[in-house]
Amino acid sequence: MAYLLVLSGLMLACGRLGDLTGFTRIFIAGFALFSLGSLLCGLAPTITLLVAARVVQGIGAAAITAIALAMIAVCLPADKRGWALGVLMTIVSVAIAAGPILGGFITEFLGWHWIFFVNVPVGIAAIILAIRYLPQDIVPAQSGRFDTAGAVLILAALATLLFPVSQGLYLGWTSPFVLFCLSASLLLLIILIIHERRSRSPLIELSLFTVPNFVTGNAGSMLIILAFAGSEFLLPFYFELVRGISTETVGLLLAVPAVFLMLAGPVAGKFSDRYGCRGLMIGSAALCAITMFLFSRFDSSTGFPVIVATLALEGIAIGLFVPPNMSLILGSARKEAGGVASGVMMTLRTSGAMLGIALLGTIAMSGFLRAASGSVIQAPVPDQLVPGFQVAYLVGAAVCIIVVVASLMVKETDRSLVGEIPPR
Hints:
By secondary structure, this protein is mostly helical. The chain folds into 2 domains: 2-146 and 203-408, Up-down Bundle (Growth Hormone, Chain: A); 147-202. It contains 14 helices and no strands. The chain has helices at 2-21, 23-43, 47-75, 78-109, 113-117, 119-133, 148-171, 176-198, 212-242, 247-275, 278-296, 304-331, 338-372, 382-408. Helix 9 (212-242) packs parallel to helix 13 (338-372). It is globular.
């Protein structure tokens, strides 16, 4: 949790640092911190030191995540941007699919410490390659001071939002702690907006939010990830509790969307480079809605081929949506605001994922509790659990339909390298 909170809370700050000091410098520093944090995690003798090392690792990951996407947006011409983002998504999908398998192998034969140690040589190699091949002046460094107060406020606001969201299922949404944190998050967000409007060198360039494509693209991105993350969170419970599938088989099934997402990403990116983002976003969001509806029809007798086909369809739908959506968002920002634009996008995506897990998880849990009511001695049978899953996935389908409507509002541009944001 410490890693995730730091990652989510600092991506905006790292993006802004990249705008101020240069992308390459922050990118290399991010890999250095991530490698150092990984080494410290593997060496940590206590839980406290492990958590501290994960914080260091999270700072590095925030810099890498925010800057990598910004560099793609500004280094490549607009007609290559979608393809590059699709390739990047393919690489991430391979990591997602292979990570659990590789992690299990490493843990079994080498010990858990090596899960962290293997990151060190990878990080060092990335630093060497970045020094060798990345230009030092991708975007000229800007004048201005770093908004430290804004960075602290956004970190605090996100921490007090995401931590109770992640714990709400277990603590209860009406618990005093959860309500206090959510109220504090809202107050901090208001203070942040007031501070940013008054700051001479704000952390967040508020003019970003006057660009329709930037706002619409980020809203669609956050909502589609909300539905996808909630879906992926619920599927293992459906497989194990309703279908009685073994843990090993569940792992293989969950790799299916990642494989098809990996295949669809570059195709979608290339298509969006040539024909634009709008049509592909509309179609893929509609496909996501269909997939969520199909999930809502699953029960204890759904055929295995149907399950695999629906999982593949989910991966294709997300794979077709993400590259054009990212290209739209990053292409709507000026090069000088690329780091902040990337930071905003990734912060909203991470927040959407956690909100999706909380929302769909809570809906499904409510259905489980209703099924278990009156059953004091025996646990509810699989068929009694199905309605909770079905309602949750219907909500996911509704969220995807909202994304379809939002995507209809997208206005195609000439996809030039310089975006729409007016200079300050």
